[in-house]
Amino acid sequence: MNLPNSITLSRIAAVPILIWMLSPHFPHGGFYGEQEIVTAAFFILVSISDGVDGYLARRRGQITTMGMLLDPLADKLLITAAYITLVEYNPHVVKPWIAVLVIGREFLVTGLRSIASSEGFTIQASDVGKLKTVIQIVSVGFVILDHGWRVLHFGWFIMPVDLIAVVGIYYMAGISTLSAIDYFVGFWRKIEHASKGSRKRDNAFVLSRRKNIPG
Q: What predicted TM-score, i.e. pTM, was given to this entire model?
C-alpha cells in the first residue's frame, strides 16, 4: 500500500466521521460554535487531501489501478455525505434541490467518464470543473460555520459568514451546472470524433473489398 492510496483510503474513512461531526451527537467543547469551526476545518483538510494524493501519485510514479478506482469513489462519497447531511444541518442555506443537483452532477460526470473509458478515450478535467471544486470546498466550509456563526469578528474586520455561505452555495450550484454541460459537450465531441473515425475505417474496408472482387 503506497502513500497516495493510503491518503485516499483515509479520505474514505473520514466520511462517517464527517457525518458524525455534523450530527447532534458530536460533543461540544468549552465555547459556543466550536463544533462548526472544528468540523469546517476537518472538511477542508480532508477535501484538500484529494489534490495531495494525486500530486504524490504523479510525482512518485505510483499511479495504480486501485488508486484510479478509489480516488473518484472517495470524492463522490465525501461530497454525497456532506450535502445530504447539510440539508438537515443547515436547511437555511442548503436546500434539497441543491443537494440533488450537486450529487446528480457527480454521478453524471462519473457515468460519462466510464463510457468514455470503455470507448478508449478520456475526458480531462476542465478549468470550469477545477473552479467548481475550489468553490465547493470553500462554500461548504462556510455553510458549516454558518450553523453557529452568522458573522465572525476579527478585531475591526467583520466577516459576513451567512452572506458568504448563501452566495457561495448558489454560485457553486450554477458552476456545477456549467461544469456538467462542459463535460457533456466534451464527451459528445469525443464520441462524434470516434464515430467519424469508425465510419471512415468501415468505408475504407468496404472499398478495398470491392476492389479485390474479380470483375
A: 0.83
Alpha helix positions (H), the chain: 3-21, 34-60, 65-89, 96-118, 127-146, 161-212
C-alpha to C-alpha distance for 84 and 88, rounded to whole angstroms: 7
Give the domain 3-212 fold: Four Helix Bundle (Hemerythrin (Met), subunit A) (1.20.120)
pLDDT tens per residue, range 154-169? 888 899 999 999 999 9
Q: Which three cell numbers stand for residue 205?
A: 474496408
Between CA 60 and CA 6 the distance in angstroms is 14
Cβ pair 143, 83 in contact under 8 A: no
Residue with grid cell 470503455, as numbered in its chain: 118
146, with CB counted inside 10 A (0-12, 13-18, 19+), is: buried
> Which tens digits make up the pLDDT trace of 36-68?
989 999 999 999 988 888 888 888 888 887 877
Q: Are 172 and 67 in contact (CB under 8 A)?
A: no
Confirm if 72 and 110 have CB atoms less than 8 A apart. Answer: yes
Find out whether 158 and 212 touch, Cβ atoms under 8 Å. no
Nearest Cα neighbor of 194 from 123, 124, 105 is 123
